[in-house]
Every structure is written in C-alpha cells, then in structure tokens.
Amino acid sequence: MTETTIGETSAAISGTSALSRPVALLQGSFLPRFVTGLVIILGWEFVVRALAPAYVAKPTTVVLAIPRVIADPAFLQALGATLAAVAEGLAITIVVGTAIGLLMGRSNTADQMIRVYINGFNAMPMIIVLPLFSLWFGYSAAARIATIIFAAIFAITMNVADGARSVPREYLEVARSFRSGRLRMLTEIVLPASMPYLLAGFRLAAGRALIGAVVAEFFLSVGGLGYYILYNSRSYHHNEAFVGVLLLAAFGVGFELLVVWATRRFMPWYRHDEKAS
After folding, report:
1. Distance (Å, whole) CA 85 – CA 128
2. For labelling, which of 17, 23, 188, 249 has a CA lying 20 to 30 Å from the CA of 48?
3. What's the rounded Cα separation, in Å, for the pair 196 and 198?
4. How far is it, in rounded angstroms, from Cα 117 to Cα 159?
5. Cβ–Cβ < 8 Å for 199, 162
6. DSSP codes joined into one string, 31-85
7. CA dihedral sign, ordered 208, 211, 216, 219
8. Other CB atoms closer than 10 Å to residue 142's CB: what's the count?
9. CB atoms within 10 A of CB 231
10. Which residues contact 96 (CB under 8 A, 6 or more apart)?
11. Which helix (DSSP H) or strand (DSSP E) does residue 115 occupy?
12. Domain ranges for the chain
C-alpha cells in the first residue's frame, strides 16, 4: 500500500513539474518579448495601411514576398557575394588582429606605441574611410574587403590584448620553470587563455563586418546584399528590400547563438562567466 501511495505521489509531482514548465516559460522573459513584438508588428501594419502609400512595406506583404525573394537568382547571387566577402574579411581580421593583440598584451612598449592609434581608429565611423578606400582600391570588391577589415579588426585586437594581459602570472612562471621558450608560451599558454576574449571580440567583429560590407555596397555600388536592398528600395520594391534587411538581422542573431553555443561546448571553463553575464 505504501509503495502504491509513493508511486502515485511521485507521478503527481512529475506531472505537476511538467505542467509548471510552460507556466514558468510564460512567466519569464518570453511572454513580455512576444507581446512587445506583436504590438510593434500590429502597430506597423495599422499605421502603414492607414497613412502610407501602397508600395510601403507592411508585415503581411513582407511575409508574402519571402518565398519569391528567396527563389530569386539575383538575390541568391547577392547574398553569396556578401557572405563570401564577410568570410574573407573576417579570416584576415582574425589572423592580423590576433597577432597585433598578442603583441600589445604581452609587450608594454608595443601597447604604448599602438593603443592610442587603435582607440582612435576604433572611434572613427567607417563611412568616413569609404571615400579613401574608393580612391585607393577603386569601386571594386577590394574596397569592400578593406572596409570589412577596418570595421572588424579593432574589436578583435583590443579583446585579444586584454585577454593576453590577464593571463595568470602563475601559468607563465610554471612554463618558465620548465624552460619553455617565449614562442611556445605564447602559442600554448597565452593564446588558449585568451580564447574567451577572442570569441567575445569575434562576436563584435562579425556584426561590424556585416555592417561594413552592407555600407560599402551602398556607397560603392558593388554587387551584394546591400546593393540589392538599395536597388529595390529605390525602385519602390520595398517588400523585397525588407526581406533582405530581415535576413541580415537573422544572420546576426544566428551567428551570435552559434558563438555562444561554441563557447559553452568547447570551453567548459568559461561557462560560469557566460552564465553570470
């Protein structure tokens, strides 16, 4: 009898916990976010239908345009060009920015010589350097790559420098006691210890690189997703242009989630700091 009662009690508890999960989800941050997004979408739809011309994008027409845009070869070609340029620029940025950041983090002399210029260029809007890049590289894909590198490199450099500077002294003293060379300490101790900082800089750099690519395509009229959005918005195809904007936002959010997952999956020692932040 007692075992039957215990089984019924445990089943009731498990059922209650299963029911409480959706309730906890609704009482958490999901419900306010959902309500806020729904209010924004409904307000957008109502205001555009009431006050704006018929060609202005509305949520309903944007949703209807998504399948047509995704199947458009011109859109796929523009998307591929932009993503390829961002990937190439980020690859160069990671190599060069990590090298400069390690140099700044482990050398006070290099830090004093470079940091003031890094801070100055980081505060400079990328739209200012676009005319210079167009003069140096022409109205070409090379100017877009240069803009992407300029937009992204400083986030990685500064974060890697902070990570290299924050390596515990005990790690380096143990390495010196085993007569490790400077290069070996840099590659096997300083760089792995700086990986959380590098990933944090990479999260910032990826978003800035995507913005830099789109801004360069706006200004230079280079084929890509930015030019696709600009062309459709100027030719009164606002729904198609807004699909490109939504896709850019989706790429940013997706990359953010991917980096967070990789940090928690491959760097378990960094989980506590991730959850605390």
Report:
1. 20
2. 249
3. 5
4. 15
5. no
6. HHHHHHHHHHHHHHHHHHHHHS-TTS--HHHHHHHHHHHHT-HHHHHHHHHHHHH
7. negative
8. 14
9. 16
10. 149, 153
11. helix 108-122
12. 2-51, 66-276
Residue 168: Cβ within 10 Å count: 10
Which amino acid, one-letter code, is at 40? I
Mean pLDDT by 10 residues, the chain (277 residues): 49 48 56 82 84 79 86 88 91 92 86 87 84 86 91 90 83 78 78 82 88 88 86 85 87 81 72 46
Which token pair is 106? 């482990």
Residue with tokens 């360069």: 216
Locate the DSSP E strands across the chain.
none
Q: Which among 252, 254, 271 has a CA at the least distance from the CA of 263? A: 271
> How many residues are present in the chain?
277
Q: Which CATH architecture has domain 66-276?
A: Orthogonal Bundle (1.10)
- What are the two backbone dihedrals, phi and then psi, of residue 178, each rounded to the nearest 5 degrees? -95, 10
Q: How far apart are the first and last CA of the chain?
A: 50
Of 181, 164, 183, 147, nearest in space to 98 by CA = 164
What is the C-alpha radius of gyration for the chain, rounded to an integer number of angstroms? Answer: 25
The label of the residue with tokens 């070996």 reads 184
